[in-house]
Write a structure and sequence with these properties.
The complex is a heterodimer of chains A (about 110) and B (about 120).
Chain A: E1 9-12, E2 18-23, E3 35-40, E4 47-50, E5 64-69, E6 72-77, E7 86-94, E8 99-102, E9 106-110
Parallel strand pairs in A: 1-9
Antiparallel strand pairs in A: 2-6, 3-4, 3-7, 5-6, 7-8, 7-9
Chain B: E1 3-7, E2 10-12, E3 18-25, E4 33-39, E5 45-51, E6 58-60, E7 68-73, E8 78-83, E9 92-101, E10 104-108, E11 112-116
Parallel strand pairs in B: 2-11
Antiparallel strand pairs in B: 1-3, 3-8, 4-5, 4-9, 5-6, 7-8, 9-10, 9-11
């Protein structure tokens, strides 16, 4: 199972919006609506931001939103704040193999 | 509050074995599927394995299939990962995670470090 493709880096100024893409295949991202997004600050464990493409767990600000089109999922962070500077990972369930595949991660820098 | 605490990591020679444990507290452990995920220092997250509620269904990443075994003891609220035939490329921080949504992991442990080196 190949890893999902994410841009290695993204950036934006405080208050702006940034979108991070996550490209997979018809066997994973394109096949199911089971894409998740995680935020990881340096030295910390990952935190679930989005599940099932566009749902937020309780406690996650609505500045974080998810979407999907075809084999590509996206995470949008609106109203960027300094605390959003972190690594972001997407993941997708691959139904045929019952596997989970992660993206390589995107480092978000708040300028 | 749910907590997951991993243990059992350490330094092991290539070809050796380790058994990781993950102790769960604060919620009904037996109600959730559980995963192991690993992360090489400075690298990304890699899914390793998943187990269903009663342990009857297990799935593994291709890179560990046949060498690693995931299991659980719901009476002890503990998840395990038996790692045999360890290779240098298995060196990583291993996280225990709870599957609450469909393969969405809402609780993560702090991780335990496995180093495979001679």
């Amino acid at each position: 199972q190949s890893a999902l493709t994410q841009p290695p880096s993204a950036s934006g100024s405080p208050g702006q919006s940034v979108t991070i893409s996550c490209t997979g295949a018809s066997s994973d991202v394109g096949a199911e609506n089971f894409v998740s997004w995680y935020q990881q600050h340096p030295g910390k464990d990952p935190k679930l931001l989005i599940y099932e493409v566009n749902k937020r767990p309780s406690g996650v600000p609505d500045r974080f939103s998810g979407s999907k089109s075809g084999n590509t999922a996206s995470l949008t962070v609106s109203g960027l704040q300094a605390e959003d500077e972190a690594d972001y990972y997407c993941s997708s369930y691959a139904g045929r193999t019952n596997h989970l595949v992660f993206g390589g991660g995107t480092r978000l820098t708040v300028l | 509050e749910v907590q997951l605490v991993e243990s059992g990591g350490g330094l092991v020679q290539p070809g050796g074995s380790l058994r990781l444990s993950c102790a769960a507290s604060g919620a009904t452990f037996g109600n959730y599927w559980m995963h192991w995920v690993r992360q090489t220092p400075g690298e990304g997250l890699v899914w390793v394995s998943v187990i269903n509620i009663d342990g009857s269904v297990t799935t593994y990443a291709d890179s560990v299939n046949g060498r690693f075994t995931i299991s659980r003891d719901n009476a002890k609220n503990t998840l395990y990962l038996q790692m045999d035939g360890l290779r240098a490329e298995d060196t990583a921080v291993y996280y225990c995670t709870r599957n609450k949504y469909y393969y969405g992991m809402d609780v993560w442990g702090r991780g335990t470090t496995v180093t495979v080196s001679s």
